[in-house]
Amino acid sequence: MTAIAIPYTSFGFALAADGRQQWMHNPTRDRLTRDAESDRVQKIFGIERPNAAFAYTVSGDIASRDRSFDLSIEVGTQAKQLQTAIFFTARSFVEALSQRLVNAIATAMSERRIEDYPQSEITLAGYFGCGPHLVNIQFERYGEGFRHRVIFHDLRPGACFLTGSHLIAKLVSEGDARFAQFCVPLDENPSLQAATDFAIGYIRASSSTLARGLDPECDKIGGHIHAATIIPPERSLRSRIQKWMGRSVPRSSFQWIVPPILS
Q: Considering its fold, how many domains does the chain have in total?
């Protein structure tokens, strides 16, 4: 189980995730897989391309036993290979990315680098042009193969995408007083700082002793919390000319608030 929070504001998105990653298939959870488990796994990543910037998270089946296939890394690899391709809409970009991931998964399966097709969800939050987008790419086993779908979500300031324990997400979103020590629900027009505080607070709440007492599945949530924000890319003619002339470099749309521990 992965706990992720992605609130949206009129100023940008905030993202936070826990750092725990475990091998969830108990029959094959041997010493090799236990040694590969960690509380410092990076689950938030950035993609920046001309006129677009996204952050993405991956949950579910992430990697093979020997780590020769890692879906988190594969998303970044396939996005880089699309860097020079021209897309006129966010949907065309995400559809192209998802199809490349389908092909990469099929190749990994044919080469026996993965034991089974993944049950995974990739969530992208960010901007294509100035338009905000929150998108899920879902992979699921289907018969002897697998299928995928792309879901674009409607957005309004104060909306929040949460994964983890459904019970804890519900209680936190409803403002249950027991979780007030961690965070309070967002109002209809939150600041980016308030959204970031809520996102981090939700992860803390999900990994707390209180949460584990209410939902034992929360034992699977924990480790180092990392958080980031993503704001609309700079698109003004002046900023692009200045960057081309080397006079200034516009601020990256993706910014770490609490970086992952990579060592």
A: 1
CATH of the domain at 137: 3.60.20.10
pLDDT over threshold 90, residue 67: no
The answer to whether residue 110 sits within a structural domain is yes
Evaluate whether residue 263 is within a structural domain.
no
Residue 238, pLDDT above cutoff 50? no
Q: Which of 57, 17, 65, 66 is nearest to 40 (CA)?
A: 17
What 3-state DSSP class applies to 104? Answer: helix
For residue 181, give its domain range.
4-258
Chain centroid offset of residue 38 CA: 18
Q: What is the pLDDT of residues 113-143, one digit of tens each?
A: 998 999 999 999 999 988 999 999 999 998 8
Does 68 reside within a domain? yes
Question: pLDDT tens, 246-255?
Answer: 554 446 799 9
Rg of the chain on CA atoms, in Å: 19
Contact between 104 and 72 (Cβ < 8 Å): no
Contacts of 40 (CB under 8 A, 6+ apart): 19, 223, 224, 260, 261, 262
Per-residue CA distances from 193 to 13, 30, 71, 180 (Å): 10, 42, 30, 17
